[in-house]
């Protein structure tokens, strides 16, 4: 009872100070690996689209005491109200705990040893209005093997001025009793850079302070928080004072939409927002219409509609010129005007670096643009936005229309049509865009005359070099907190014919930890130096919207193979549903034998929430059979994924994919002889066994043969090249033009 009185008195003293901060209290990452105070959670969660990395030196040693050790926490806000984190707890960084354990058994040492990897999740319930109070439920170190920190809790928080009051109840079986019962805490933030915190964690009272270095002092990259837990009345701590540091930043700047945008109503042949879409036409390229139902989205870039940026003034000049053109002109003058506009448009698109460019028009002032995108490798949507912005800038003919055809390796992938004046008004922030979209080839446009030679700046026989890391890691093993082997991978793609070309990859080791040296525990997983893949690939569109890609050649996947890999993919007309299959037959180069695998996959794209769900089942690369489920939470051009797989062992984990190349490729890296760029979708994952008593390593389970060129990544923009995706990201079409004009 005396501890609860201490909290009440402390809260009363804090409440006696005047309110000095205008902002509501900031949420912080606790020492335990969830948003909270030091040991206890609050009902707040990390904001959607934010990542937090933290370190603190307070180690909870087997639920018996607090030692001076190492805690690493990686957290992300994946969804509105959903926070996930992974934590590593260790007594030492590099000591071999097998040796320490044996020495302790023989009485040669009394040094404690511990190293643990855990997963945490927290969800803020949306059913209670936030102006009342917030409620969250969470779990720490659940579902895996050897769950030494397993805890479940319910927390409630109420903000009052610059105070936050929290309470809740937790349950666990740890001996010291922390978070096993009722807990409570108070936070006071008198300034936006400083906060005082006090809590009772069901075992002891703790108090401390936070100091934050704001984003504006760090070039708007992120913010740093320094933490000191300077008081505790616990009797099981090695030190009374512990400290920590956090770095918080947005996962992607492109994920920050100007406003929340509802899906546009469809004026096409079927409803894009219905769960079950009913096709109204046998055409495989179903027409889509995009009309944003909010204008505030398009006005967010400017403070008012009447203050134009230099880019917008260029477009406005085209609009004024269209209005002042005489209504009656001779046929020759009219055609000369169309020719000049088409030539200017063609020159602008070529200056942007696009390839395979064809620009034409007909007597009805319908302008047609066809191009291939090697400029915005991270997202084809940006290329479409810049090209359509160029049309609004250079075409001033009254009543003009346009069709843009995006081509990949000579294959038509997506077409967008619209009215030039409407799109120009969209760029200026005065209207919503009316766009008709269809997958595949565009609708025929009659009587097109091409300005200059078609397919200018040919993309064929230009080597495309992609550089990126090849990383093998082991986390929180008995050999160390973090072991790794890093290599530099270079992939060369040479498009040679429609849908096909040559793909070659090689790598060279850069740096590794001692445990990845030859003869050491992880030595066999050290990336080899030399050729890793060399294959010819061919892609084609089959009837009923099915795409096929085959690759024949050399593949290195721990062993050397020669064989063939095949992919088949089908997408529905909107791009919400995707079904694919992958099968390969590979002969060992150094042994008598072969390896084959077959998998089938389904993907559901919840594009309104930037989430995609993936399910794969079959026989995987190393012969294990079973299924894998994955949810990807997209932030701009990257994502954070949660996965679970059940083959011969059960594994769950987290993965992330990030672009390692600029949004727009630098002009100095693109020449008429080739191109050098970074990996636009580099992925890394960490997994752990679940449902078992021991957490032994599981290597290569549910594995696919990854290739630099694939249907989903190369031809379908990581599965995002669809009318539905563009419909829900129209703000980016305008933003990319205003950024790179």
UniProtKB/TrEMBL annotation:
It comes from the Bacteria. Pfam families: YjbH. Residues 1-21 form the signal peptide. It comes from Aliidiomarina shirensis. InterPro entries: YbjH. Keywords: Signal. Residues 254-336 are annotated as: Disordered. Residues 279-323 have a biased composition (Polar residues). This is YjbH domain-containing protein.
